[in-house]
Write the structure tokens for this entry.
Amino acid sequence: MRAKRIAANLALHPVSRPSHLPWHHAAHPGSTPLNHCPRRPLPTRTKAPMRTFALFVVTALAEIIGCYLPWLWLKQGASAWLLLPAAASLALFAWLLTLHPDASGRIYAAYGGVYVSVALLWLWLVDGVRPTLWDAGGVALCLAGMLVIMLAPRTAG
């Protein structure tokens, strides 16, 4: 609702359009708030959940790698040099968390479902341990919870 009020105000007062917006009127003659710059289309509601899910997967991989490499050093006798890429991976993980567009508590809760899924894939593909039917059921529950959190209707304000 707020976005509609802003768009209506900008349409009524074309001189007051801020130049920092991506569809600045002077740069794109004939553009309006509802007819934005065609070079940078606005993300649609259908694309946003898939982008968020992909970001969750990359974030989970960064976290798992950042924790797996020190585990290899401590438990498997691997080189201590693995701590350097582990630290870089954990730094990447922390940075990736800042890219999520919503309130951090909700994002972390939804991310947890994807993390569990990626961790079990890691168990299978890297450690060579095939997940059980119980593991698959747990992943299904986690992903269902993640979808409830991410796709629930939000009220403005």
Notes: Residues 13-18, 21-25 have pLDDT under 50 and may be disordered. The longest helix spans residues 47-76. The radius of gyration is 22 Å. Helices lie at 2-12, 47-76, 83-97, 104-125, 133-151.
